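Quick illustration for those who missed Monday's session on complexes.
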Amino acid sequence: MLYIGCHLSVSKGFAAMGKAALSIGANTFQFFSRNPRGTKARPLDTADMSRLDSLLKENRFGPLVIHAPYILNACSKDPGVRELAARVILEDLERLEHLPGNYYNFHPGSHGGQGTAEGIRQIADMLNQILRPEQKTIVLLETMAGHGTEVGGRFEELSEIIDQVELKDKIGVCLDTCHVFAAGYDIAAQLDTVLEGFDAIIGLEKLKAVHLNDSVHPLGSRKDRHANIGEGELGKSGITGIINHPKLRGLPFNLETHHELPGYKAEIAMLRELYQD
Ligand code: FE
Ligand code: FE
Ligand code: ZN
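Prediction with fe (iii) ion bound:
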């Protein structure tokens, strides 16, 4: 089963997003929990959320990925910025209890010169403050390109965060294909080796979702710029290898490429063609 979808806008509400997903042939999708460049949230509409929940079940969707605003930084030098990240993520997770069984993805953060070890400690510390044993959402750390002081460009860094988190069953990883490639993992030519490394360092059971993007910049560039599928350094063959890899089967794949709905519809249809049942 290929769970394939894309990033959608929540601006018209939750159920409307589910219908948009159906209209483009998606059976998973991702959306921002709130304004991605700020922290302003929509009013909570639990009726709309449960309408989406029913639509997902009726149409056998794979798990969704809810993306935290990317301005959050859980390992900022500024304690106020760290507190804001904790507050926003906790509130998002509380809201997501009305849409149970999905994933919440966030960028680990940039340590801003404090050092990777301290950044990792602060990220884990935040997670230990906010994760609850009873929560129905698994929180995902996104693999990063490793630009500047970004934490999460190496599998070892994600593994160390998870090591320091108490509620390990509430934490997983979302692999962004553009980011890992930019970080230096050759998922086009050496996918088996990269996944063996992931398994040895983090454990493949922690891999819960994939952001499926081609990369404008070459292997190891540490530059995060998504290309449309087949138009970047991974190419159509790289992407085909990824969606068909036996160890990645069944994961939700979400496109974060540059399209409106019709473009996403075409990209999803192309990927369904490239998928071997
Ligand atoms: Fe992201
Ligand atoms: Fe991503
Ligand atoms: Zn990116």
